[in-house]
Write a structure and sequence with these properties.
heterodimer; A: about 260 residues; mainly alpha; B: alpha/beta; six-stranded mixed sheet; three-stranded antiparallel sheet; 11 strands
């Protein structure tokens, strides 16, 4: 009997802990919205957080985008040769970078870099009682720690993604000219063929939602960390895994809603 | 604190805890590790809310205060954390000045002057530009104390202020606690399991056991207690405590 009940109990415990975590994250979200009123606590920290979340993420985002652009151009040429005019390589590189790979790959990379960083920082502050210390000094820790990080994510992710898109397209362009015997005019013709300004808006909306996801999930797991160094490690891993999953779900959601 | 109950999951930590802290005196709460002393202390500043019961500070029921009223009340309370809880990315000067900066009615010069005064008071002058990681355990405790007194609070709560320190540094911290009480006339509550410290700094001592107060009295009354739990604890004789049903 116990052998049957054991897995049931484990599933039950997992479900309860999942719902509890969701409830805590919800409360934190509500607190963060209320904490927006306390500008004196979060405004001074916003520029530093924007630099940490955005500027410091630029190298990794551009590195990923550069190689994505190269691979996209080569694979498009491989697929199109003999069937579709090669200038469609520019179309495929541009559309795929802007609509999909730029935002998603950058989002996933930054969930590792930014989300893990936030969860580890807040988790360490929680287990060493630094967050309690802030409270005893009459600082609202949500306004002081959480709000500037989330706002920085919402503001900076789209900027990093736009840069990454640009670099991805340029690297695809250079690859097309250097390795595929295409002229610059052909690539640009393909690039402009199906380009819509809405594509950029779509990328910005999507990446802003990814920025919100990565920072908010990192904050939620870090803020509610328990159990010392092991707890910090667990919170960091969960933050990266959960935010990556939410990014993929959001990716599908925005495609269904906006396209 | 009146009939405070607090549980974490199935584990009941406080079960009807009642204690009054006399104004202007230093009260120590003693008890074994994991007995709920820190949990009790966190209720006083609203870091934890009781499942049942009331916590009164300055005529305010802490457990019913909204967040803003709670922050207002906390300005009158200095809290010295067990492991100092200094902000590790800030210098000692910034750490000690945090509470004053939050009050918002001091210029940068005034904050700096007050920070230096507090660091002098805890014998840490000259350490203002150091990071917490560059200080020893005892120095970090003193920096934590400087941060707690910077806003000139009416109450200071000490969470195990001498845990992990050598006997000489423990005596230095004890002297500081006594000095704070004498020079600043604050009401202090000290959580400790170090009996030497408790007898040295306290006007009153209460023992927390099994979720409630086992005995409360002057240091002399506690020292002469015939209660096997109290006697067993202060004399370090677990066999006496185990004999209690």
């Amino acid at each position: 009997m116990d052998a049957i009940l054991k897995p049931v109990r484990a599933v039950g415990r997992g479900a309860v802990s999942g719902v509890t975590a969701l409830g805590r994250a919800g409360y934190l979200g509500v607190d963060a919205v209320h904490a927006l009123k306390k500008g004196s606590l979060w405004v001074p920290h916003l520029p530093a957080q924007m630099a940490r979340v955005g500027v410091e993420s630029v190298p990794i985002a551009l590195f990923i985008a550069m190689f994505t652009g190269i691979v996209l151009a080569l694979q498009a040429s491989y697929t199109f040769t003999g069937t579709v005019p090669l200038y469609f390589v520019g179309t495929l590189v541009g559309k795929t970078m802007v609509l999909e790979l730029g935002p998603v790959l950058t989002g996933l990379a930054l969930s590792g870099r930014v989300g893990a960083n936030i969860a580890a920082e807040l988790g360490t502050m929680r287990v060493t009682e630094q967050i309690d210390a802030l409270e005893t000094l009459a600082y609202d820790p949500v306004a002081y720690l959480v709000v500037p990080k989330i706002l920085a994510g919402i503001i900076m992710f789209p900027m990093v993604v736009i840069l990454a898109n640009g670099v991805g397209i340029v690297s695809g362009w250079i690859t097309s000219m250097a390795l595929l015997d295409m002229s610059s005019q052909e690539f640009v013709k393909g690039l402009r063929l199906f380009f819509l300004p809405f594509d950029v808006r779509f990328a910005v909306i999507k990446s802003a939602s990814f920025g919100l996801t990565v920072t908010a999930v990192g904050c939620a797991f870090g803020f509610h960390t328990r159990g010392g160094a092991e707890g910090v490690g667990r919170a960091t891993t969960r933050a990266v895994v959960i935010s990556s999953m939410i990014i993929l779900v959001l990716d599908a959601f925005w495609a269904m809603v906006l396209l | 604190m009146v009939d405070v109950h607090k549980a974490f999951g199935d584990k009941e930590v406080l079960t009807g805890f009642t204690l009054s802290i006399p104004e202007g005196q230093t009260t120590s709460v003693i008890g074994g590790s994991g007995s709920g002393k820190s949990v009790m202390l966190k209720h006083i500043v609203g870091l934890l809310r009781p499942d049942q019961g009331e916590v009164w500070v300055d005529g305010e029921n802490v457990s019913r205060l909204d967040q803003e009223s709670l922050y207002k009340l906390r300005r009158d309370v200095g809290y010295v954390f067990q492991f100092s809880a200094l902000f590790d990315s800030m210098t000692i000067e910034e750490n000690v000045g945090m509470g004053l900066m939050r009050l918002g009615d001091h210029s940068h010069e005034e904050v700096r002057d007050r920070v230096m005064e507090c660091l002098r008071l805890v014998d840490l002058d000259g350490y203002d530009k150091r990071l917490p990681s560059e200080l020893s355990g005892g120095q970090r405790k003193r920096a934590g104390l400087a941060r707690a007194i910077a806003t000139q609070p009416k109450y200071i709560l000490y969470d195990e202020p001498t845990t992990g320190l050598d006997p000489v540094t423990t005596a230095v911290i004890d002297e500081l606690i006594i000095r704070m009480a004498d020079e600043l006339s604050v009401t202090a509550l000290v959580i400790t399991h170090n009996m030497t410290s408790a007898f040295r700094v306290s006007d009153r001592i209460a023992m927390l056991y099994d979720g409630g107060i086992r005995q409360e009295g002057t240091p002399e009354e506690i020292r002469e207690s015939e209660d096997p739990v109290v006697k067993g604890f202060i004399e370090g004789r677990p066999e006496l405590m185990e004999s209690v049903p």
